[in-house]
Amino acid sequence: MSKKVLILSSSLRANSNSDALAEAFARGARDAGNAVEEVNLKEKAVAFCKGCLACQKTQTCVILDDAVELAEKIKNAEALVFATPVCPVR
Q: Which region is the signal sequence (predicted)?
């Protein structure tokens, strides 16, 4: 049974290890018959919440960025994968 897979990559570097991992996972998921969508967060604009609470009244955020689109993709995904860099502990 095919699943809708969403892969979110958050590395800021082009051709990063996180991107390579995301691409390898996507290839495997597609080979297994799944519908895969890859999103690189460095290409998206997501602002911080302003705390205005307008969304509680209108059910819509006043900030016009890519967060609404991303939230919808996450909501519709059946499998969610995060590929993100990890800083070493020093």
A: none
**Could you tell me if 58 and 29 are in contact, meaning their C-beta atoms sit under 8 angstroms apart?**
no
Q: What is the Cα–Cα distance from 76 to 88, expressed in whole angstroms?
A: 33
What residue type is 76 in one-letter code? N
The pair of structure tokens assigned to 78 is: 């059946």
Q: Contact 45/69 with Cβ under 8 angstroms? A: no
| pLDDT tens digit sequence for 28-46 | 999 999 999 999 999 999 9
Question: Six-digit token pair at 71?
Answer: 């939230």
What are the structure tokens assigned to 31, written together?
A: 């080979």
pLDDT for residue 90 is more than 80: no
The tokens describing 60, both together, are 């819509």
**25 and 35 Cβ atoms separated by less than 8 Å:** no
